Amino acid sequence: MGLRVSKVEVNNAVQEGKESKKSLRERSKSDLPFKGENTKQWDQLIRALLDWAGTTNDPFGTNEHPDLMERLQELWNEFFEDIKIDIADHPTVKKKVVVSGIWIEFGKRALKLLKRFFVQNPMYRNDPDARAELVAARLPHTRDGKKVIPFIYSDPEKLLCSWEDATLLDIFSYHVQRVGDALESNGPPSGALALSTAAYERALTLYKSGENAKELEVKDGEPNSSKRSKKHEFDTYWGAVARGYTASTSSIPAGKWTRIISYASSGQRTNSRQPSTLDVVDDVMEARANIPISDDEDEDNE
């Protein structure tokens, strides 16, 4: 998908001295070095930067990525070619394009979608044990002596159609929608899909007992308890999980990416969800990095 770049005529003299004397914390979008009529170009830049961030192997670490400032300067020159600035001299620009915070929305979306699935399904709505059984069957576990990660598959029992679980694609659709026509302008969104996968795994982990662990904390009156699991918040721990998944998502063939993005855009994928009882294990980082393309997908490699 290509980006449509619109050139704008801007008097550079108006932009001189635009960097505010406010503290960086106090600066807002109005302190950016362009006029209000350039908002469209700014939005295009943000979408393109998010697309780039979604291709990296460490989505949570985007703000510290060694290529961030260089990429941001390139995009500024592309979308604001009549406003000549050095991004390094305008910290407000970097502040307003902080992208790591956007990734938190993936965690929120995953938890919301999983809760909705349970509420809308009579089999699980009022049965925590049934929910716990389903979650155990979907989370990474050992099957026939081999670590598997069923929740990424459209058919989790037969492990077919990897990365095509309906809920996973719905989570990933947040990135597809947010990036818009900039999608894939920097390559396949392997980092964004890995982040979506980590967000989904975290949501399932929170429901491991059949109840949302975060909601239980609040009910117990301990929202800030020091005993809270590191897995509850979608932050550093899950950043490592996302990095583990990028080793697999980065090897997805082009044909499969076309299908994944099509499903995420249209919401057409549905699942086969049949619960089973399996032993859940935690040591699955190697498995996350080595998820095979299932047998039904060999044609995508051609």
Offer a concise description of the structure.
The protein contains 13 helices and four strands. It is mainly α and 302 residues long. The protein has a two-stranded antiparallel sheet with strand order 1-2. It has a two-stranded antiparallel sheet with strand order 3-4.
Could you list some keywords that capture this structure?
two-stranded antiparallel ribbon, 13 helices, two-stranded antiparallel sheet, disordered N terminus, mainly alpha, 47% helix, 302 residues
Explain this structure:
The chain has helices at residues 12-15, 39-53, 68-79, 91-96, 100-120, 122-125, 128-138, 166-179, 190-206, 213-219, 236-249, 254-266, 285-289; strands spanning 141-143, 146-148, 153-155, 160-162. With 302 residues, the protein is mainly α. It folds into 2 domains: 23-98, no CATH class; 101-301, no CATH class. A hairpin with a 4-residue loop joins strand 3 (153-155) and strand 4. Helix 9 (190-206) crosses helix 11 (236-249). The longest helix has 21 residues, at 100-120. The model is unreliable at 1-19 and 272-282 (pLDDT under 50). Residues 1-35 are annotated as: Disordered. Residues 16-35 have a biased composition (Basic and acidic residues).
